[in-house]
Design goal:
This protein has 345 residues and is of the alpha/beta class. The protein has helices at 19-29, 46-53, 66-71, 80-86, 98-108, 130-133, 148-163, 202-206, 242-251, 267-276, 314-325, 330-341, and strands at residues 10-15, 34-41, 58-60, 78-79, 89-92, 113-115, 126-128, 142-145, 166-176, 192-193, 215-222, 228-236, 255-258, 287-290, 295-297, 300-307. The strands form 2 sheets. It has an 8-stranded parallel β-sheet with strand order 4-3-2-1-5-6-8-7, sandwiched between helices. Strands 9, 10, 11, 12, 13, 14, 15 and 16 form an 8-stranded mixed β-sheet that branches. Helix 6 links the parallel strand 7 and strand 8 (142-145). It binds NADP nicotinamide-adenine-dinucleotide phosphate. NADP nicotinamide-adenine-dinucleotide phosphate binds next to helix 1 and strand 2. NADP nicotinamide-adenine-dinucleotide phosphate is lined by residues 15-21, 40-43, 45, 47, 61, 93-96, 98, 116-119, 147-148, 179, 309-310, 313.
């Protein structure tokens, strides 16, 4: 595999230009070894206008709706069929379940496809997290970049498993009810065990990345939109002191250890921190772990982490593009993505 990525140009299409798709599209344009050849949408709206404003060729995801774009004065470059035909890799960022419907389109054109965490794991050859199992996706045709929560857990558990061994992980996920623009989601005045049955699906999802890892998860939904929060307990196969664990997590490229001195007490302050530093859309690509929460009781590790659901999967999609293209190994890709996106506070 080539370590020099500068002379490659992977032609990337993004089908589904919403919360995840528009962020992935922007991240692709930062990669010297990739070219964004277009994005597809079903209808004209402010996001379709954004694509045009950014100079991204816009394609119609549904042929019968071409007229709507014409009526709105938005110039189309063609249909999604043409876009997929021209692409080396397509990133499907459509709503949950639509990715599965699109699979035959990608197969028709023999175009490798990435799907998102809302799709079932059995749709694809492998699920993906760059830190966890990059190599499994090399040369694969259908790859699922796992959900925001599973991405956050995989990044945390990978170094713990490698350094100390994980006997058992137990995580309670306090999940945001919806993204800020999802005005129809809730709860708006409640705290819901969700799913009520235990364990939640998140543990099995982590097992799509680490099949042998023992993990139980519980989920809740709360009236918040900014981030998820994980309350984590991991029984390790060793008893390191808390500082050693915090240092290990701090060394990881996609984890941010929130210093006590920063006075960041929650997701609101984290978003403010990110916006103050000029992050696009106030995105936080890293797991945010409160350093003073990292505690050891014997071999039991405890900590709190916050996960920005709208953006933590974005660098993972960029790495997955390189993996399916066979364009780089894990280390080279992750380093390049981190550098181009300026990951790390
Ligand atoms: N948001 C999150 O927090 C988050 C985090 C991690 C993973 N995910 C996963 O990422 C995927 C996308 O989620 P999202 O939050 O980005 O959804 P989203 O904001 O609703 O964006 C999806 C976009 O796809 C477009 N679309 C709908 N049907 C389409 C079709 N047939 N062809 C092409 N485009 C179509 C929609 O726009 P138009 O209909 O207007 O064209 C919409 O803007 C899901 O699998 C989700 O589970 C989401």
């Amino acid at each position: 595999m080539d370590g020099d990525l500068s002379d490659m140009s992977i032609q990337v299409a993004v089908n589904g230009y919403g919360t995840i798709g528009k962020r992935v599209a922007d991240a692709v344009t930062l990669q010297p070894d990739m070219e964004l050849i277009g994005v597809a949408k079903t209808r004209p709206n402010h996001e379709a206008e954004l694509a045009i404003d950014k100079g991204y060729p816009l394609y119609a995801a549904i042929e019968e709706r071409i007229e709507l774009f014409d009526d709105a004065g938005l110039e189309l470059a063609g249909t999604v069929d043409e876009l997929v035909a021209a692409a080396d890799v397509v990133v499907d960022a459509c709503p949950s379940g639509i990715g599965a419907e699109n699979k035959s389109l990608y197969e028709e054109h023999d175009t490798p496809a990435l799907y998102q965490g809302g799709e079932d794991a059995d749709l694809v050859d492998t699920s993906f997290n760059a830190r966890g199992n990059f190599a499994d996706a090399i040369g694969a045709d259908h790859v699922r970049v796992v959900s925001c929560n599973t991405t956050g857990l995989s990044r945390l558990l990978a170094p713990l498993e490698e350094e100390y061994g994980v006997e058992k992980a137990r995580v309670t996920l306090v999940r945001r009810g919806g993204d800020p623009a999802q005005s129809g989601r809730g709860p708006i005045n409640d705290i819901l065990p969700n799913p009520v049955s235990l364990p939640s699906h998140h543990g099995p999802d982590v097992n799509t990345i680490f099949p042998e890892l023992a993990i139980d998860t519980l989920g809740l939904k709360v009236p918040a939109t900014l981030m998820h929060t994980h309350s984590v307990n991991v029984t390790l196969e060793a008893s390191p002191d808390a500082d050693a664990v915090a240092d290990l997590l701090d060394e990881q490229a996609r984890t941010f250890l929130i210093p006590e001195s920063s006075d960041i007490d929650g997701a609101g302050a984290l978003k403010e921190f990110s916006m103050d530093r000029g992050r696009p859309r106030g995105d936080i690509w890293e797991n945010c772990i409160w350093r003073e929460s990292v505690s050891m009781e014997g071999s039991d590790l405890y900590l709190f982490q916050a996960i920005h659901q709208e953006s933590d999967v974005v660098p993972e999609n960029v790495d997955a593009i390189r993996a399916v293209s066979g364009a780089a190994d894990s280390e080279t890709s992750i380093e390049r993505t981190n550098e181009t996106m300026a990951i790390g506070f």
